[in-house]
Amino acid sequence: MKHNRRRSIMLRVLVPSDGSRNALHAIRHVLHEYDQNHALDIHLLNVQPPFSALICEHSSKIARTDFHQEQADAALAPARRVLDDAGVPYTAHSKVGDTVDCIVDMAAELHCDGIVMGTARKSSLVRLVESSVTNKVLERAHVPVEVIAGESASTLERVGIPAGIGAGAGILALWMAAN
């Protein structure tokens, strides 16, 4: 996000948060941006997955709504704590649905100037084969998306997935050579 230090520019940003440490990297980044521009309008968003039809058949709408709200509140609590401790104003939102759809739709609904997302540090190969929320938001958003690198990916993601892909490609090559 660009700033003019002489004049504060009102920017509305959406910060999706799932309560993870990587999401907190995005919150800290936005906090730093707020220090540079107090006109920043911050909107936190947590998206909860919908229940299956079977669960909906056997539970009340009130119980499902309460559960989703409890989960959203718990996921947003770390981000809210950071912003509250810094005295930074924000608005918190929660939605139920497909995560990518909800993020993109909320950014449009709020007329956001950008989306700031935290993500784990992953290899290009892992990013290529996985279907990440970050990648999908980057593809579908109609506003700039700023991706803040967080924690390193797990050993499984850094080593196991590329090794598995390599082994699968080797088996496929052997099979193709034999046929």
Strand content: 15-25%
Which CATH C-level class is it? Answer: Alpha Beta
- The helicity comes to 40-55%
CATH superfamily: HUPs
Question: What's the shape?
Answer: globular
Report on this structure.
By secondary structure, this protein is α/β, with parallel strands linked by helices. The protein has a single domain, classed as Rossmann fold (3-Layer(aba) Sandwich), CATH 3.40.50.620. Helices cover 54% and strands 20% of the residues. It has a 5-stranded parallel beta sheet with strand order 3-2-1-4-5, sandwiched between helices. Helix 1 links the parallel strand 1 and strand 2 (41-48). Helix 1 (21-36) crosses helix 3 (61-86) and helix 4 packs parallel to helix 6. It is globular, with a radius of gyration of 20 Å. It starts with 11 loop residues before the first strand and ends with a helix. The model has no long low-confidence stretch (mean pLDDT 84).
Q: Which keywords apply here?
A:
179 residues, alpha/beta, Rossmann fold, 5-stranded parallel beta sheet, 20% strand
How are the SSEs placed, and which strands pair?
Blueprint: E1 12-16, H1 21-36, E2 41-48, H2 53-57, H3 61-86, E3 91-96, H4 99-109, E4 114-121, H5 124-129, H6 133-140, E5 145-152, H7 155-178
Parallel strand pairs: 1-2, 1-4, 2-3, 4-5
Helix pairs in contact: 1-3, 4-6
Could you write a compact summary of the structure shown?
With 179 residues, this protein is α/β, with parallel strands linked by helices. The protein is 54% helix and 20% strand.
